[in-house]
Automatic annotation (TrEMBL):
It holds the Pfam family Cellulase. This is Glycoside hydrolase superfamily. GO terms for molecular function: hydrolase activity, hydrolyzing O-glycosyl compounds. Transmembrane segments: none annotated. Belongs to the glycosyl hydrolase 5 (cellulase A) family. Keywords: Glycosidase, Hydrolase, Signal. Residues 54-373 form the Glycoside hydrolase family domain. GO terms for biological process: polysaccharide catabolic process. It comes from Echria macrotheca. Coiled coil: none annotated. Residues 1-15 form the signal peptide.
Amino acid sequence: MRLSTVLAVAGVVSATPLIDSDVRRAAWPNTPHVTSGRWVKDATGTNITYAGTNWPGAADVMIPEGLQYQSIATIVTKIKSLGMNAIRLTYAIQMIDEIYSNGGKDVTLQKAFVQALGQTNGTRVLNQVLTKNPSFSASTTRLEVFDAVAAECAKQQIYILLDNHISKGMWCCSGDDGNSWWGDKYFDTGNWTRGLAYMANHAKSWTALTAMSLRNEPREPTNNAALSKSSYNWQGWYGFVKQGANAIHNANADVLIFLSGLSFDTTLTPVVQGTALTPGTAKFSLSDFPGYANKLVLELHNYETSTTSCSTLRGNLDRNGFNALSGTTPNVFPVMLTEFGFQMDATTWKNTYSTCLASYLPEKKAGWMIWVLAGSYYIRSGRQDYDENWGLLNHDWSAWRSPSYVNGALMTMVKNTLS
Ligand SMILES: *[C@@H]1O[C@H](CO)[C@@H](O)[C@H](O)[C@H]1NC(C)=O
Ligand SMILES: *[C@@H]1O[C@H](CO)[C@@H](O)[C@H](O)[C@H]1NC(C)=O
Ligand SMILES: *[C@@H]1O[C@H](CO)[C@@H](O)[C@H](O)[C@H]1NC(C)=O
């Protein structure tokens, strides 16, 4: 609607010709986004790269973090002030499981906070959330909080990659946390496809939604040898990935679908190289995603934080999947680094890992999302009000934890990626 208004006005006022970019801005986000070779394009055909940060909402309370300290609008304004254009917003499948167990009714904030933090602290933190975010009440539901984050992102033009981070709402990830692989203790495949479809359908109303991921960091179930032996391999992976992608696409045909690889999503090599998905002989084929081959994006994570060689790190990233961006591999995709991060202090950002990624990603015009926005968590690994020293924000989400990083490198990295 706004697009046609702009065009109508442009037709009347001929003194200042309307240029394409004005039309595009007017119609943000120009969904659906699609892939074209190694690029993501919006509906006007403009290449889109995502540069953003992770906003966790998949831990025990299962709502986006930080709302006891700041309003949603304040937090999104901070993201925007970095020049970023995207967030990776995480959720747990348990949130949807609880809607189903609750007769289709979503859980209230009152219940969510008390369930995760106990009666006394849960009530206290809930009241802090309501003070900072007065449009909510104790009976606001979890999904209504996600909806409010999405609405603010739309207002400030921040794209959302909605990420299924884990099944059971808790800190992620290890090989023995019960959420490692399809069939693990908490990772029921049916609950997972049901949850993906539920969120894909629910989030159709989010203007800012452009993409959904299948699953964060698939990994070997290290405490379950039988499960590991039966399916922790590329052949097993492909079967599950096709189920998840179908679940999302059938519920919402507009979103991009992000695929993550083995070993904590550090490698997608056989997918890019088109080699056998072992121990089977079948290969990855876009024809296995009928009608939506132009929706698949690869995502990788990298935490080689102690590297001392940028050329080694670059070589690893290329080999693990980023060489799909060269356009010369058997399979070509957009590839994004949806997690990397390090301690936020005065000096760590000057090391090889950080400076190498700050040049590599913009040079490749690869999308990325730094881990993590959160300065603290409602609860992490049993400790309440946990301080996150990798957080871009400080403990009460009021300021940057490492202003020297933000001003000395991060904002330039965003600018160089999006320019
Ligand atoms: C946009 O994508 C096209 C391929 O469709 C590519 O040739 C072009 O270089 C890209 N433009 C920019 C500015 O990256
Ligand atoms: C409740 O919150 C207080 C203050 O943050 C904290 O010291 C205490 O450990 C919390 N209680 C539990 C059970 O975690
Ligand atoms: C799957 O969801 C149901 C609720 O519909 C729940 O009772 C069950 O515990 C979930 N399974 C797992 C493994 O979490």
